[in-house]
Every structure is written in structure tokens, then in C-alpha cells.
Input
Amino acid sequence: MRAVDIVFIERISRPLFWCYGLAYAGMWWFALLGLDRQGFFTAQPDCMIVPTMLAPLWYCGPSGPLWFLASLANAAMILTVWSPVFAAAAWVDPAHIAAFLPIVMVHAVGLVAATYILYKVVSSLVLTLSSRLQRFAVRIRPA
Output
């Protein structure tokens, strides 16, 4: 590959990696929002838990704007909390591997991306804090 192609791929892949990592962290936030049985969705009058064969999921009536958030929370819970159920199903019957592979790919890329973002944010905070502390220490040092 030419050097121009590699630079182009880097310029495109870095923002996509950051977006994927932030989306992965958001997915976990929505999963925790959906697991909170005494929180956000229970305070709404048209939201309820619907028991299904796989797992209990949220249902909010189509009249309000919460149906979209409930759908996101359900998808996040299926991809995170209930993924061991899909793993067990794929282990017992190999025909279910097609349902489990997207979950594996979400976690294989998302966990790496979220860890990378956490590393970059924490390291930049530490470097910024240490440089400010060094400047402060230089100012108060007696002559």
C-alpha cells in the first residue's frame, strides 16, 4: 500500500474507533438503565415489564417518546446482560451460532475501543494535571 493510502485509512479509522468506543460505553449505560427496576422506566405511567421467553423486556406505549428509549434499553440488555443465554444456546445447538456471532463481534471490538478511549482520556488528564502541578511548584519555589 502507498503511504497516502495508509494515512487516509488512519484519518478515517481513528474517529470511527472513537465513535464505536463511545457507543459501546453508551450501550452499557442503556443496559444499566434498563436493569434499574425502580428507576427511570417505572416512573412512567405507560411503561411496563413484559416477560418473554428469553428475558424480561421493557414495553412503553407508542403514545409517548419513551418507546425509543425502551427499545434501546432492550437491545442493550440483550447484547450485554443476556448474552450468556445466547452463548449457552450456541453451545447446545450450533444452529444458534448465527445469533451469537454479532454479540461476540460487538464485544470484541467495543471493549477494545472503550478501553482505548478510557486510556487516552485518563492519560491526558494525568499529563495535564502533572504539568499544571509542575508549573505551580516552580512558581512557589523560593529563590
Summary: The chain has four helices and two strands.
